[in-house]
Design goal:
Oligomer: single chain
Strand content: 5-15%
Order of helices and strands: HHHEEHEEHEHEHHHHEEH
Largest sheet: 6 strands, mixed
Strand order of the largest sheet: 6-3-4-5-8-7
């Protein structure tokens, strides 16, 4: 990369973004999350930039060395949460028509707070989203694994599902510069399902590679375990009916806040093929904080 100032600016911007989530970066992570195409060697040379501090192999903004301890603590917490998620997901991973289950909302590898729930991103077969949501919700309700207002720690949150016909998640982005959603997608951790389904998801979102040209696929390989298969004509007809009924039932029991918010923004999207239920969307706040921090720097 010819423009050293441009690279330095891109590095600082990346570090400021992750600083919001208390996450110091390694040199390799900085390279992966840059929004400019550059060699790893060039990044290493630029990391001598005086504004950046380094300790124990981590890079961070001035006076933020305390984040190293935070990252190490969260790594241990995340490892425990991932193992717990794999165990608890056995309750629903066998359901027919599930193609992929990912652990989501991870901004920075293994960056999970101990008190958080386990946000899931699920891909289903075409026209089976509501059927899967219906059965999974019942199972998690019976087993007391759905998050509630009083207790959400380590509960399984079915807040984001799409079917195979809606793998392109462009409609979920605030704009072409939505770096938060870019990091969200890159941070998905595939736990159950087909590896090809994960690859198809990434391929369908070509903007991810454009936004993070140095980024690489998650090293995690999802567990492809047994699934109940329903292939008879009668079973398919029954599933079609249940799909429609499940959609209607969900609309009946859906909270008023979701009804008021649906399809009015990228936070709550409810269609036949996409179900995104994130009533709290802080992306604009994050964008503003980064702009202010960059201006101060």
């Amino acid at each position: 990369m010819e423009n050293t100032n441009q690279l330095n600016s891109a590095i600082i911007q990346t570090m400021v973004r992750f600083d919001l989530f208390a996450f110091p970066l390694t040199s390799f992570e900085i390279w992966q999350f840059l929004d400019v195409l550059v060699s790893y060697e060039e990044v290493l040379k630029s990391l001598d930039y005086s504004l950046i501090e380094k300790k124990q192999g981590f890079y961070f903004l001035p006076n933020r060395s305390n984040l190293i301890i935070t990252r190490q603590e969260r790594y241990r917490e995340a490892e425990a949460k991932i193992k717990l998620a794999q165990i608890r997901l056995k309750l629903i991973s066998w359901l027919p028509n599930i193609k992929l289950i990912c652990l989501a909302n991870i901004i920075g590898p293994h960056n999970l707070k101990p008190e958080t729930d386990l946000d899931l991103f699920i891909v289903t077969k075409t026209n089976r989203l509501w059927f899967v949501k219906f059965l999974a919700t019942i199972i998690l309700k019976i087993t007391n694994l759905r998050p509630t207002a009083k207790n959400s720690t380590n509960k399984l949150c079915l807040s984001f599902l799409v079917d195979e016909s809606a793998l392109d998640l462009t409609i979920c982005r605030l704009n072409n510069n939505d770096w938060y959603f870019t990091y969200w997608l890159s941070g998905l951790m595939p736990l159950y399902g087909d590896l090809q389904a994960y690859k198809d998801l990434i391929t369908a979102n070509s903007w991810l590679k454009q936004s993070l040209p140095n980024w690489q696929l998650s090293p995690y390989t999802p567990i492809n375990n047994f699934k109940l298969k329903l292939k008879s004509t009668k079973a398919i007809r029954l599933l079609n009916s249940i799909e429609k009924l499940s959609h209607k039932l969900h609309e009946l029991v859906m909270g008023q806040d979701l009804k008021n918010s649906q399809n009015k923004s990228t936070a709550v999207i409810i269609t036949d093929h996409v179900l995104k239920l994130h009533t709290t969307d802080r992306r604009k706040d994050f964008f503003k904080l980064v702009e202010e921090k960059m201006a101060n720097l």
